[in-house]
Design goal:
The chain is mainly α. It contains six helices and no strands.
Length: about 140
């Protein structure tokens, strides 16, 4: 009895994984890359040879774009205390933060450089006002 239940669960997960990949419009290789696993590992999951472990399964389910996809894994948004699909992480968030830091640091560097050049220019003006010794 337990063997039949486990086989049914494995088949359901296999179908859900394949359905999700197709819904995302990805070939197996891209899906494996997106999850960060080896292609051969992903193929075993999709073929039902071996199911993904808990952490992998959670990572796969995080790619679900809608309630229907989550339902294929036997979950509902309500079970996760969510009103809708979780927002996709902003891939540019770190880039924006780094750019802001560079701009802030760069602005102070430019300001310091301009101040140094102005000081040199002021010194040259002061020096030019002094009497020069005649050249021999």
């Amino acid at each position: 009895m337990d063997t039949l239940r486990l086989t049914a669960e494995r088949l359901a997960i296999k179908a859900a994984i394949k359905s999700l990949r197709e819904k995302l419009g990805l070939p197996q290789q891209d899906m494996a890359a997106r999850l960060g696993c080896r292609m051969s590992t992903y193929q075993k999951w999709e073929q039902g040879v071996s199911p993904p472990g808990g952490d992998w399964l959670i990572q796969i389910m995080q790619l679900c774009p809608d309630a229907e996809s989550l339902a294929a894994f036997g979950l509902k948004f309500e079970m996760l205390n969510l009103k809708s699909a979780p927002p996709a992480p902003d891939p540019y968030e770190k880039v924006r933060a780094d750019l802001d830091l560079i701009l802030r640091d760069g602005a102070s560097t430019v300001r310091n450089t301009v101040e140094e050049q102005l000081d040199k220019f002021a010194d040259e003006i002061r020096m030019s006002g002094r009497k020069r010794k005649p050249k021999k």
